[in-house]
User: Which sequence fits this backbone?
C-alpha cells in the first residue's frame, strides 16, 4: 500500500431515513475513532445536514454520490458542487456505474463533473469499471483506459493530483460476486501504470479503491494487494458492524506494513 493512507468509503445509495442515517453515522464515528484509515460516508443530499451534525466533529468525512456539472441556473432538480461543499462535503463520487447505466452519464460529462468538484475544493471519487460482457470480450484494459482518457482530456494529468479512483467491475456491484484479489490487483496496477506513465509522482500517490461486493470476510485479502488502497462499499456500508469490520481490515494492513 506504499505510503498511501487507505480510504474506506460508504456509498449509501438511495437508502435510509433521517433517523436511520443519524444512527448509522454515530455508530460509524464511534467505531472508527483512532483507526489509521480515512473513513468517508456518502448519504443522499437531503441527509447531508443531519449526517454532518453527527460526523462534523469526528474524523469521519462526508461526501456526496453525485453532483451537477453546472454551478447554478436553470437545471431543475440538480445540486451543484458549491452547494455540496457548503454542506461539509469533501468528496463526491462521480461516474458510478449506476449513474452511467441508469442515467446515461457519459465519460465526458463525468470529466466535467470532476473539474466542477475540484473547483469547489473537493476531491472526486472517480468510478471506472467494465461490464461482464466487456470482460468476456477481453476489453477490460481498453474500457478503463477510455474512461480515464476522457478525464485526462478535460483536465490533463494534474487533475489526478486531487482525485481518488474507484475500480468497480460492474458485474461485481451488488451481486455478491467479488473480483478475486488477483483480478482486482491486475486492474489496479494497470490504472496506476497509466497514470504513472504520465506523472510518476501523481501515479504513486493516487489512491485506487476497489468496489463491488466488498464484505467483512473478503476485505482483508483485497486490501492486502499492493495497489488496492481501500474500498468503495455499497451494501455492507449500510450496517455499522460490517462497515467497521471492513475499516478494521484496512487498518490491519497498515499495521502489518508498519511492523
Ligand atoms: P456493493 O456496491 O458493495 O453493494 O457491491 C458497491 C458500489 O456500488 O459502490
Assistant:
Amino acid at each position: 500500500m506504499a505510503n498511501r493512507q487507505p480510504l474506506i468509503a460508504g456509498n449509501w445509495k438511495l437508502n435510509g431515513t433521517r433517523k436511520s442515517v443519524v444512527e448509522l453515522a454515530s455508530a460509524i464515528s464511534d467505531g472508527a475513532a483512532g483507526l489509521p484509515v480515512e473513513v468517508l460516508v456518502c448519504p443522499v443530499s437531503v441527509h447531508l445536514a443531519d449526517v454532518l451534525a453527527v460526523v462534523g466533529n469526528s474524523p469521519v468525512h462526508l461526501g456526496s454520490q453525485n453532483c451537477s456539472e453546472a454551478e447554478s441556473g436553470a437545471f431543475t432538480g440538480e445540486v451543484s458542487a458549491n452547494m455540496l461543499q457548503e454542506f461539509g462535503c469533501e468528496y463526491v463520487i462521480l461516474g458510478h456505474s449506476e449513474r452511467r447505466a441508469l442515467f446515461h452519464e457519459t465519460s465526458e460529462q463525468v470529466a466535467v463533473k470532476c473539474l466542477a468538484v475540484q473547483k469547489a475544493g473537493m476531491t472526486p471519487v472517480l468510478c471506472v469499471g467494465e461490464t461482464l460482457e466487456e470482460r468476456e470480450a477481453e476489453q477490460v484494459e481498453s474500457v478503463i483506459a477510455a474512461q480515464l482518457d476522457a478525464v485526462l482530456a478535460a483536465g490533463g494529468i494534474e487533475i489526478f493530483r486531487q482525485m481518488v479512483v474507484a475500480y468497480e467491475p460492474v458485474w461485481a456491484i451488488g451481486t455478491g460476486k467479488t473480483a478475486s484479489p488477483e483480478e482486482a490487483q491486475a486492474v489496479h496496477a494497470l490504472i496506476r501504470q497509466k497514470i504513472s506513465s504520465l506523472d510518476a509522482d501523481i501515479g504513486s500517490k493516487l489512491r485506487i479503491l476497489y468496489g463491488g461486493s466488498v464484505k467483512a470476510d473478503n476485505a482483508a485479502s483485497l486490501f492486502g494487494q499492493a495497489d488496492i488502497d481501500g474500498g468503495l462499499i455499497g451494501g455492507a456500508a449500510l450496517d455499522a458492524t460490517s462497515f467497521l469490520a471492513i475499516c478494521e481490515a484496512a487498518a490491519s494492513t497498515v499495521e502489518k506494513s508498519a511492523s
Q: What stands out?
A: The chain has a mean pLDDT of 96. Strands lie at 7-11, 38-42, 61-64, 91-94, 123-128, 164-167, 207-211, 230-233. Residues 11, 168, 173-174, 211-214, 232-236 surround 2-phosphoglycolic acid (CB under 6 Å).
